[in-house]
Amino acid sequence: MSTTVSTQIQLAARPIGWPTAADFTTARVELGELGADQLRVVNEYISVDPYMRGRMSDAKSYAAPFALGETMTGGAIGRVVESTSKSIPVGSVVLHQFGWRDVVQEDAAGFRVVPELPGVPLSVYLGILGMTGLTGFVGLTAIAGMKPGDTVFISGAAGAVGTAAGQIARLMGAGRVIGSAGSDEKVALLKEKYGYDEAFNYKSGPVRELLAAAAPEGIDVFFDNVGGDHLEAALDVFNPGGRAALCGAIAGYNVTDRKVGPDNMVNMITRGLSLKGFTLGSYLDLAPEFNANMSKWFAAGEIAFDETVVDGIDHAVDAFLGMMRGANTGKMVVRTAAMTDLIG
Predict the structure, then answer these.
(1) What is the pLDDT of residues 131-184, one digit of tens each?
(2) Which residue, 12, 152, 170, 184, is most buried by CB atoms nearer than 10 A?
(3) 241: phi then psi, degrees, rounded to nearest 5
């Protein structure tokens, strides 16, 4: 292999408020010869995700912060172009967490081989068939205990996790699925493509009023990706015994002042509500159950998905910043340079 330089995106500074391009830098890293049981992989897609914003801060959290001057980690998928591994040969498609780089060289233990699906881009393993879909499944089942017939509200429903969670809720027998999104076009997509029974544009008015109108008989389950006014609105309309899976709070990720909390938390007591936050790493044991269900649904043509694709590793930061501002529909991924550009 003649090309031994990997283009990598690194965190240069800890953002204050909204991240900017100045918080990142691009490094060209020369790769050495493979060691024992190692792979060299040319990435085809890398993932950018909301949780990455939290790890750019050095505040105490569920995971260690990204280190300054080191390459951003996260989900990626690519093909093996060199191997000293007995178990993973050249040509294999592999998933990994080595993140924002076009070529990765690491021990074989850090990669997982996945099959290619005819007519389906490899990026699907970073979205609906991967951690994104699993997040929706875990939140609805293990956290919120969704039951057939429940009315389910999903905030940020046009994003990667939201589109997955809405379909999973419907396929698992939800009586009604309601979503919020940031534009009229996304609202239409939720209802026409993803099977949502009702959806509203949260930018068109107070969320408390919009959700009350969309759910006149209340909600039983809330899958929250947004927090803030969406959580407050859900607390207003919860039925007795309602349950919330708190997956994300993107409304507050970039704020620099302390926000006042919901003014209706007393409803948790009077209605016997349960609100539980979660991160996926504690529930990976549910992956086999998710894979069995999702494989069946996907093969039957019961799952739709959208991707917003940004081309070029040098545009990974643009993709991340766009995703944080809601520029994506479905999963946001970065398609790195073609393999012919990276290998000689």
Answers:
(1) 999 999 999 999 999 999 999 999 999 999 999 999 999 999 999 999 999 999
(2) 152
(3) 80, 15
Asked if 169 and 238 count as a contact pair (C-beta separation under 8 A), the reply is: no
Do residues 114 and 191 both lie within one domain?
no
For 91-133, how does the pLDDT look when each residue is reduced to its tens digit (9 = 90+)? 999 999 999 999 999 999 999 999 999 999 999 999 999 999 9
Residues 327 and 267 in one domain: no
* Shared-domain flag, residues 211 and 105: no
Angle between helices 160-171 and 287-299 (to 10 degrees): 80
Supply the range of the domain harboring residue 122.
5-126+305-342
Q: In whole angstroms, give the CA distance from residue 338 to residue 99.
A: 17
- Please say whether the beta carbons of 142 and 286 come within 8 A: yes
Give 51's contacts (C-beta < 8 A, 6+ positions apart). 248, 279
Contacts for 15-23: CB closer than 8 Å, 24+ residues apart: 15/53, 15/56, 15/57, 15/254, 16/256, 17/254, 17/255, 17/256, 18/254, 18/321, 18/324, 19/53, 19/56, 19/254, 19/320, 19/321, 19/324, 20/321, 21/317, 21/318, 21/321, 23/56
Q: What is the pTM of this model?
A: 0.89
